[in-house]
Amino acid sequence: MSQISMPSTFLWGAATAGHQVDGGDVDSDTTYLENVTPTVFVAPAGVACGAWERWETDLDLAAAMGLNAFRFSIEWSRIEPRQGEIDEAAIAHYSDLLDGCLSRGLAPLVTLSHFTLPHWFAARGGWFVPDSAELFAEYCRLVTERLGDRFALVVTLNEPNLQHILADLLPAEIWELSAATLDAASVAAGVPRYRAGNVAKLEEIGGLEDGFEAAHVAARAAIKAVRPDVPVGLSIAVADDVALPGGEAHRDRVRAACYGRWLELAKGDDFVGVQNYEQALYDASGRVAHGPEVELNGMGSPISPGSLEGAVRYVAGATGVPVLVTEHGLSTEDDAQRCAFIPEALAGLDRAIADGVPVLGYCHWTFLDNFEWVSAYGPKFGLHAVDRETLERTPKESSRVYAAEIVARSAVPAGRHA
Question: CA spacing 20 to 30 A to 351: which of 69, 126, 183, 357?
Fold first, then answer.
């Protein structure tokens, strides 16, 4: 790999995604799917957190926490609401957002596709159409030409492996409802095959991943052609898969199926994004439950602060490229759980770094209590609460705990988090 320019300091950030916080992205596939009947979404995003208008407030809150990075997505459906039509007002908005990050000392960590797609792209078949990668690359080239001079790094695709992971986790009725949602969208749009970025049919996951892989390769080339110095990678969902005695074969089979192609692909990137939320245990019979003494989070999964360390070590070792923790967090209504979770998880990250694992930074998911896809506004992952009536942001105690963790590490010798 050629010499590249990497951020010079450890990135301490928080992560967001356009559809989940902005509100009003009426030209996206997800908005369309939220409003067909039947739909797998329990409620539409609507105004979300109103971040499209309140971005300055959010960046002020991020800077007040002592963050030096902010992850957000540039939404394709905003930039190109109809095929071939570029919205200059959207370009100007993202330009202001980038300038706002830089003026506050926040490195802009940009995602170019955080699940959502333009409605027109989904209506023509989404990632399954042969020229889909070419169209995505053209969008990435345009955005990089117009805005890329201020990118600190770029994530092309967010969690292209997620549907594969969910294949064994979601009940059959959810997959049936997802298929019915896409069928309803196809009828409503008057097209033969409406295919979205974050709702899939179980039997089509392999084809969807093929489209994602081609899109990443094409996007990486398009971005590098404009800004060869900017670090480019993708983010993948990674559990900390732990083999109990006799469970190695089951664990390795899951790793190969869920991460294999993406870890191989990442070997050609400048970094790989790790998004970790849980630990999975395997014995000779397969996946096993954690013991009853383990505390559960708001999604019913065990709270495992050590899972971040395990996931980061695994991905770095498997790819040989630097790791950026692009998402890591906890779903809980009880912020005291998050306050205890963050320091313990970061201590594990410290151990990995001390052992020489190349980690570029850490982004907590998420900055605001936001729209969590099919679950709508039920799960709470945020460092800031959002009043659903007024959209006022209120820092939680966990935001102060995270800020204190950053301050505590700012006094360590140079290279401790490099």
Answer: 69
